[in-house]
Automatic annotation (TrEMBL):
Alphabetized InterPro entries for the sequence: BGBP_N, BGBP_N_sf
Pfam families: CBM39
Record key words, sorted: Signal
Lineage of the species this protein comes from: Eukaryota, Metazoa, Ecdysozoa, Arthropoda, Hexapoda
GO molecular function, one term: carbohydrate binding
CBM39 domain span: 32-137
Stated name of the protein: CBM39 domain-containing protein
């Protein structure tokens, strides 16, 4: 009788006919030991359960109930919310089942089991009991990126500086140690025309409105055989010069691949 009822429920969840259904008892060592179902809750409403994609899963289904009461006595819990859904769609490497309308609160109890369909066979787990605690709820501040990019309402510059520092490290990691903060204004016989390299570069920046905030971010400037070289405070500052000065300044990136044409921003 128990197997018959289970077969009816799962055939409904997965949308299979009796002719297509071959029901089996749970076989944890062979099937369910290879993947795990995860549950995440949202506020004020929303529930998501998912499992990672696997060659053993063609369809992933869930039978889930939510109630309030003593989790040690299931017969005393009123199961007033339920979810019977399945999916064969893979999203970001996962089978995801989501119900935005279900409201779940801390202190309640979740009773669920999940099923997978593979090679004309439905595999069904045993029911599991889950007490709803704060850890089950999605909190954006728990996200690593969110926690590393705080923007204080009273001090937005602090958040911007922190974000800039994170981007700087990411760029250095991607570009490698060979990436520098140097740029070059090409100018033949620069030593005959430029008395103060730093002032020369800063005056160039002042000619372009979008580069004026970067005037003080020029750390050093020196005369070279073929122009005036200078170093920006950060890699991000360097990329800003290349992008914001486009079509308005002549500037060369010395880090450009020698096998390719150096990055040059031409005058209009």
């Amino acid at each position: 009788m128990r197997l018959l009822l289970g077969s009816i429920v799962i055939s409904f969840v997965l949308g299979l006919t009796k002719a297509e259904l071959k029901f089996c008892r749970p076989n944890f060592p062979m099937i369910f030991g290879k993947f795990k179902a995860h549950i995440q809750l949202r506020e004020p409403s929303g529930l998501m359960i998912w499992t990672s994609n696997s060659p053993l899963i063609e369809t992933f289904g869930v039978e889930l109930y939510v109630g309030r009461g003593n989790p040690c006595g299931l017969h005393k819990i009123v199961w007033d919310r339920k979810l019977l859904l399945n999916t064969s769609v893979i999203t970001d490497g996962k089978f995801i089942i989501q119900a935005d309308e279900i409201v779940v609160q801390r202190g309640e109890t979740i009773l669920y089991r999940y099923s997978v369909f593979h090679e004309d066979t439905v595999w069904q787990s045993f029911f599991r009991i889950l007490s709803v605690t704060d850890d089950l709820f999605y909190r954006p501040e728990r996200n690593v990126c969110y926690s590393q990019c705080p923007v204080e309402q009273n001090n937005p510059h602090m958040g911007a500086a922190r974000l800039k520092d994170i981007l700087e490290r990411k760029i250095e990691k991607c570009a490698g140690l060979q990436a520098s903060k140097h740029l070059l204004f090409p100018l033949e016989n620069a030593n005959k025309f430029v008395a103060d390299p730093l002032t020369y570069i800063q005056d160039k920046f002042r000619q372009v409105e979008s580069l004026r905030p970067l005037v003080d971010n020029v750390v050093t400037a020196d005369l070279t055989n073929n122009g005036v070289g200078f170093r920006m405070r950060t890699l991000i500052d360097k990329f800003k010069v290349l992008e914001l000065g486009k079509y308005q300044l002549d500037v060369i990136d010395p880090d450009a691949d020698s096998t390719e044409e150096a990055t040059t921003i031409q005058n209009v």
